[in-house]
Amino acid sequence: MTATEAKALGKVGVLFGGRSAERDVSIMSGTGVLQALQSQGVDAHAFDPGQRSLAELAAEQFDRVFIALHGRYGEDGSMQGALEQLGIPYTGSGVMACAVGMDKIYTKIVWLMHGLPTPKYAVLDANSDLDKVAAELGLPLIVKPPHEGSTIGITKVVAADAFKAAYDTAAALDDSVLAEEFVTGREFTVAVLGQGASARALPIVEIVAPEGNYDYQNKYFTDDTKYYCPAVLDEATTAEMQRIAVEAYRALGCEGWGRVDVLLRERDNKPFLLEVNTSPGMTTHSLVPMAARATGISYEQLCVEILRSARLKMAAPATGKE
Fold first, then answer.
1. Which residue is catalytic, options 22, 75, 84, 148?
2. Which of 181, 206, 224 is the last residue of a domain?
3. Is 20 one of the annotated active-site residues of the chain?
4. CATH no. for residue 87?
5. C-alpha–C-alpha distance, residues 33 and 16, integer Å
6. Active-site entry in 150, 180, 279, 309
7. Is 286 one of the annotated active-site residues of the chain?
């Protein structure tokens, strides 16, 4: 990128840290993004909304911001709404897409309305009949807090007598709890860039975790998890997985960039959508940079491409009238 192109991006804030349970991961992501942008000559500055106020954010007079926040208060539409109010263009999806994408229950509802495949589920509260849910979904099943990411609070329930403890773990983090059919098969993720008709899928990444346990530790802090990109799949399966990932992204109104997690059922090679990440990780272990590299896009180039897409989503369109 030329000095003129870097200057045209203006003063850039990289938002990371925040107040969610994913703060530590966000710091790793944001630090990487900040260094990458600065290496390209961008006038980029760190800003941690977990330690500084929105008034301070406004006072910085950023021309645009790169959102490297994960989880609540950063990936759920709240920060996006604040930036709309402040008039600061930002990367990634808008308020509605982030809010829906952060809620795994509403995400499923939208996907099912669009005819997209996702595992069967039940929404649990303190009065739910767990034995009935286990009978309907079958064992094993997955229990998770629907508003957390990075596999925080997730439990695989193999025996019925472990269901209540799994519920309690998730309920400690969220007002509602999601129980989901366990799909036996291979695990993949599909990065998507762009918006609307121009949204495109990057090469698929297969995730092979120790004993199939892709938890917080195996995601970020060990080298035991193996990643294969492009994933070894036949052309038809690759095309179908990328198709439904892009359709899932569009159905929620996502834009800029995102990542859609998919399971490929072992018995029939049918793909099932798990969740969408509207502010994916950008750490050294993260999967969007890995997918980009497979197409010849460096980490630095990816950060610049995402930054260039920053915009306000709720601004009134130009009418052409004085």
1. 22
2. 181
3. no
4. 3.40.50.20
5. 10
6. 150
7. yes
DSSP 12-59: EEEE---SSTTHHHHHHHHHHHHHHHHHTT-EEEEE-TTTS-HHHHHH
Residue 136, annotated as binding a ligand: no
Q: Read off the pLDDT of residues 240-285 as tens digits, 9 standing for 90 and up.
A: 999 999 999 999 999 999 999 999 999 999 999 999 999 999 987 7
Average pLDDT over residues 54-80: 96
Residue 34 located in a structural domain: yes
The C-alpha atoms of residue 308 and residue 256 are separated, in whole angstroms, by 9
Say whether both 218 and 133 belong to one domain. Answer: no
Measured over the CA atoms of residue 53, residue 54, residue 55 and residue 61, the dihedral's sign is positive
Q: How confident is the model at residue 319 (pLDDT cuts 50, 70, 90)?
A: low
**186-214: pLDDT as tens digits:** 999 999 999 999 999 999 999 998 765 54
What is the span of the domain harbouring residue 70?
A: 3-92
Residues 215 and 289 in one domain: yes
Residues 210, 81 share a domain = no
215 or 318, which is more confident? 318
Shared domain for 214 and 284, answered yes or no, is yes
Query: Binding site annotation covers 187?
Result: no
Task: Work out whether the CA dihedral 171, 175, 181, 183 comes out positive or negative.
Answer: negative
Look at residue 322 and tell me whether its pLDDT is greater than 70: no
Q: Is residue 315 part of a domain?
A: no
pTM across the whole model: 0.91
Q: What's the maximum distance between 2 C-alpha atoms anywhere in the chain? A: 69
Look up 22 and say whether it is catalytic.
yes
Write down the catalytic residue from 26, 29, 286, 309.
Answer: 286
**Does 275 count as an annotated binding residue?**
yes
pLDDT of residue 72: 86
For residues 49 and 154, state if they share a domain. no
